[in-house]
């Protein structure tokens, strides 16, 4: 017997101090099983308690996360509502509406109060959310409704601005039309086909070169008006204006676009003044009447034609010298291809060829220019002195005696003082009546250097 493996069991029976000793087998597992079962049960209880605690914590976290998500959704919805209310307040001010402003202002105040209450509830942990999921959905609906309201207000504002811009454009167009009409009236006055008042009571014996210069300016105003009209027609027909200018003058001149009109004016003037130094613009075949009677005849024609109603005169006198001159110069100046390109047909050219006179703004402007050149020729012949017309050759040195520049601005753009200026081309020819020289008008360029094209 192994006494070390004995187990003492105490007993209180009778208080006699009797002890019972139980001998156990050292190889027996009875005691170990008892201890193992007790430990396992304790571990199971601990694990179960831990699992329950973890589940409760996870649920609490999930609930808090849902509440915060719902809070943020509600917060964004309220901010969007405030933006919509503020947008409504802004649009109520233009046009100004007291009732609309008060209503919009109250909406802003109400939304701010709601936002303040939401903040207070969050800080006091008193959020009253029926269901976070439902709250999120309701917040999204509120946010979308506020966004739609904001978009509607923005659309109304943009429509109002568009209406205002449309009204402004209409007003500006009306103002532009008024200015255009005023400019046309001024241009009509400047280029009026009425008589030259300074020649009403003048006598042949007191004619002097200053009268010719006045009549020349009168003619050139009409010529420049026609050139502007021709350029507008070219631009409307989408012409390459640079190519058209190069067809008249060589490209190496490098003429800036703002001075391009001088090229077309040169082309028109050269055609219209060709033959100017002869009566009727033709070389005389024989000597006519004596000199004074010729002068008087030219002067009387001048006074008559400067004051006559041009259209009436041309239709009533289709075979007159002025009518033939007008038709001939039109056919020379306005080529068939040019007319077809500008107007899409040759109806005006066909009418002119048949002896008629088209009633169009373009032809009327041309006819007025032709009349003024014609009466200028009659006035020049009225002096009874030898008449010459001259063009200045290209690259000639500039001379103030025989020339004047067509543009002081063009001269100012040429750098350097004392630059050697040369003639690029003649715009308006010069005239010599007896010993009196009327300067030609020329476009100038520096010698050996061309301006840069802009």
TrEMBL record:
Is Coiled coil a UniProt keyword of this protein? yes
Q: Name one GO biological process term.
A: negative gravitropism
Q: Where is the DUF641 domain?
A: 64-189
Question: Could you confirm whether the keyword Coiled coil appears in this record?
Answer: yes
The record's listing under InterPro entries reads:
DUF641_pln (IPR006943), GIL1-like (IPR040225), GIL1_IRKI_C (IPR056813)
- The segment(s) forming the GIL1/IRKI C-terminal domain are 389-443
Compositional bias annotation for Basic and acidic residues: 32-43
Keyword annotations for this protein, in alphabetical order, are: Coiled coil
Coiled-coil segments, which residues?
141-175
Task: Map out region (Disordered) in residue numbers.
Answer: 32-60
What is this protein identified as? DUF641 domain-containing protein
Q: Which organism is it from?
A: Linum tenue
